[in-house]
Write a structure and sequence with these properties.
about 75% helix
């Protein structure tokens, strides 16, 4: 499980970056007006959650003689790690948006995409915090 936590966040980030910079969108086109903003919000909520688990795993990995698992990570909320994971995910989103403007012929930079990314990050933070509160009360 620990190796999965180590590789899942970087792999997912590369998949999101490829999907965002590819010339044709890999996701199906939906007739909903702001479907792409929902895609952004969901993608960055997942990204933030994965980077939170990654950073927390790396922090606990450096502790001497401390055994942990996914329940330990989810039960002990860390504001510092949540802010770091959220900021990291937002920076990645910004770099991808800049890449869309300068390196992609069929994609353009959109400020509303960044707002959707931020909304997804905030929602993921709230969900992780709620999960933490529920698990820690057991």
């Amino acid at each position: 499980m620990r190796k999965l936590l180590y590789w899942l966040a970087p792999f997912y980030t590369l998949v999101v970056a490829y999907g965002s910079l590819a010339d044709s969108p890999p996701l199906p086109d939906v007739s909903y007006l702001y479907a792409d903003k929902l895609y952004h919000g969901l993608a960055y909520a997942i990204m933030m959650g994965l980077w939170y688990l990654f950073f927390y795993h790396r922090f606990l990995e450096r502790q001497l003689h401390f055994e942990y698992n996914i329940i330990t990570i989810l039960s002990e909320w860390s504001n510092t790690i949540a802010v770091a994971a959220g900021a990291f995910s937002l920076v990645i989103g910004g770099l991808i948006e800049i890449g869309q403007e300068y390196f992609s012929q069929y994609r353009t930079m959109d400020g509303y995409d960044m707002m959707a990314n931020l909304a997804g990050i905030i929602i993921a933070s709230i969900i992780l915090w709620i999960i933490s509160r529920i698990i820690s009360k057991r």
